[in-house]
Amino acid sequence: MFRQLLLLSVTLMALQPVFSQAEDSSAFVKGIEAFRKGSYDDAVFYFKKAKESGVTGSNIEFNLAVSYYKLEKYELAKEGFLMAAKQEKYRQLAYYNLGLVADKQNNTNEAIRWYQKASALRSDSKIASLAKDKISKLSLTDKAPPQQNLLAARDKYKTSSATGRRSRERKINGGVTLAVGNDDNILLADGNAEEGQASNLDGNYWEVFGYLNIPLGQNWTLNANTYWQDYDIDPDTQDFNNVSVGIKYRTQLGGWWFSPSVHYIDSNLGNNDYQQIWDYKLRFSRSLGQGRWMVFRYRYSDIESEAPYQSFTGDRHQLRAEYKTKLAIGKLRLRYELELNDRQNRPTSNSSPTRHTIRARLKRPLSDRWNLATEVGFRTSDYETPSALTQARQDDRFRFRLDINRDMSKTWKLGVLYVYTDNDSNGANGVSYSYTKNDIQFYSSWTF
Q1: Is 441 left (phi over 0), alpha (psi -120 to 50) or beta?
Q2: Phi and psi for 14 in degrees, rounded to 5?
Q3: How confident is the model over 39-97, as pLDDT tens digits?
Q4: Is the CB of residue 374 less than 8 Å from the CB of residue 402?
Q5: What are 195-238's pLDDT values in tens digits?
Q6: Phi and psi for 134 in degrees, rounded to 5?
Q7: Which residue in 94, 151, 98 sits closest to 121, CA to CA?
């Protein structure tokens, strides 16, 4: 396999992308071109697209790492170089670059350790020579007189703190999605069923979703989002909106990522107050390597519902297990969720279902710009029998989603989303909640 190294200067020889003739992904080629132009954000975008299209191996990891280094995202660069080092032909380059990363983070001992590893390998004499020069320079710096060392250490600590903040700088991010769509069987909310009864009404709607994440230091993030949906039918009893604000903490515990969060959600249905919810989540995730992840989440919701929906007031507990992996056909996510409810049931109806949900989602690129995401899900809902009922209600819901979208730029995409739902209810207490519905929408999404 042929490999090309683009050399700008001797000292930067290891910090250029590598290209293999075996890589026929146009996204990969565009990533190389963007890097050569100095458009490192674009390079990251295209290399990620290449990974999603099935390009694997140390080539892609190395090129992502180099691009992250150029963007001063040193922790991400380090992860990529560690992945690239698993393949022998990139090992010396990766070790040298890991030394450069540690040097940028003002971690002299770690930098020297990586340079020593690079100099010990003989696959490229120029890299070995550069590594030895780096070791010599860093060793001389450490042999300064005691007082000078003390001052240098103090300055290094200040510089390291500032550089660390820069290298791991977390930026404000967010996005907005605008959509117009058609629902051929609008669900009408009532005081007996939180999801509503089928109306057999066909209606058009517009939809807006926006979110904002504001980093607070290295571990805390302030979150806010809002959702609005407006139908063209009268009266406006089915129009819905909500606003959510909260805070999330994220840290690493051993090999696990731990993310607790708390959010407050206020919603309106029609022209009336609907629900106020305090939402608490605990999320644990762990990498299993090679793009595989296990995710566990517990969610507790304290729900206060306004008239005529008082029966929905109460507690909701959700336990979720999720497995994510990368396959040749795309990214696969498998999810199971158990939901337990303790609501204010009425004498003639139960608002506290026990639910089991399984979902499978596949995301894959269709080309450089076109993407596909599809999901199938099945949910069972069992309602205990109130004393006035002779039959317990049970719902079985099947749902299929198909999303096809096109990247117009790094931050803007256009797409079409289709959702088919089939809910089979046994019609307890003489009321049936069975329905089928088709919902299709066209959307435009921006992120920053």
Answers
A1: beta
A2: -85, -10
A3: 888 888 888 888 887 777 667 888 888 898 988 888 888 888 888 888 888 888 889 99
A4: yes
A5: 667 788 899 999 999 999 999 988 999 999 999 999 998 767 78
A6: -65, -40
A7: 94
List, in sequence order, the alpha helices (H) in 55-207: 58-70, 74-84, 88-104, 108-120, 125-142, 146-167
Looking at residue 84, its amino acid is: A
Tokens of residue 193, six digits: 């069923």
Residues 298 and 228: their CA atoms lie apart, in Å, by 27
Q: What would the 3-class secondary structure string for 285-344 be? A: EEEEECCEEEEEEEEEEEEEECCCCHHHCEEEEEEEEEEEEEECCEEEEEEEEEEEEEEC
Residues 81 and 199: their CA atoms lie apart, in Å, by: 57
Tell me how far CA of residue 90 lies from CA of 118, 123, 291, in angstroms. Answer: 11, 9, 20
Q: How high is the pLDDT of residue 324?
A: 95
CB 403 within 8 A of CB 415: yes
> pLDDT per residue over 417-435, tens digit each?
999 999 998 866 666 788 9
E strands within 184-313? 187-188, 197-198, 203-216, 220-231, 240-249, 251-253, 256-269, 272-289, 292-305
| Domains delineated in the chain | 3-142 (1.25.40.10), 173-447 (2.40.160.40)
**pLDDT score at 41:** 86
- In this predicted structure, the answer to whether residue 21 has a pLDDT above a threshold of 80 is no
Q: What are phi and psi of 146, to 5 degrees?
A: -50, -50
At residue 445 the predicted structure's pLDDT band, cuts being 50, 70 and 90, is very high
For residues 72 and 139, the model is more confident at 72
Residue 373 forms beta bridges with which residues?
363, 403
Question: Band of the pLDDT at 154, cuts 50, 70, 90?
Answer: very low
Q: How far is CA 251 from CA 170, 297, 325, in A?
A: 14, 15, 22
Residue with tokens 């979208």: 405
With 90 as the cut, is the pLDDT of residue 414 above it? yes
Torsion on CA atoms 32, 327, 375, 356, rounded to nearest 10: -140
Residue 428, classified by CB atoms within 10 Å of its CB into exposed (0-12), middle (13-18) or buried (19+), is buried
State both tokens at 349. Answer: 């109806």
Tokens at 165, concatenated = 């903040």
Q: Render pLDDT for 334-368 as a digit per residue (tens, 0 to 9).
A: 999 999 999 887 666 777 899 999 999 999 988 87
440 half-sphere exposure, CB direction, 13 A CA radius: 4
CA separation for the pair 323, 286 (Å, rounded): 10
Q: Could you tell me if 234 and 250 are in contact, meaning their C-beta atoms sit under 8 angstroms apart?
A: no
